[in-house]
Amino acid sequence: MEFEDSNLNALGLYVAESLNKYGILYCHMIEPRMKIVGEKFECINKLLPMRKAFRSTFISAGGYDREYGIRAVAENRIDLVVYGQLFLANLDLPRRFELNAPLNMYNSETIANPDPVVGYSDYPFLEETNA
Asked: Distance (Å, rounded) from C-alpha 19 to C-alpha 52?
């Protein structure tokens, strides 16, 4: 769902609280929570009231990298992280996160390209050396 309202925070909180009545298994919210500060990202944490109100699994997407995802889960701000663009550009993302390896940069110009070779399938996999 996408909402437009004069008070999105209050609306989001109302929706999160209302979902509890129906035994919904999870709530997945997306917002651009990250803002660029110099060359770093800062978490805005606007979803925290909704996370506290919703009594089941809370999932969020919107600009997470490895560090912020780990921290958000550790601080109980969310239960699960969605890594949309990062996963599209790094189909081996779990292994890259495990090794704290460099990531491929996401190319928004080719990701939805109808070409069967350019876009989803042309990102390189991590080359590991046997130690």
From this structure: 13
Amino acid 34: pLDDT = 55
The SS3 call for residue 12 is helix
Calculate ∠ Cα 109-115-119, nearest 5°: 45
List the domain boundaries for the chain: 8-82, 92-131
More reliable by pLDDT, 123 or 66: 66
Nearest to 67 by CA among 89, 85, 83, 88: 83
How many CB atoms within 10 Å of residue 82?
17
Q: Is the pTM of this model over 0.85?
A: no
d(CA 82, CA 65): 10
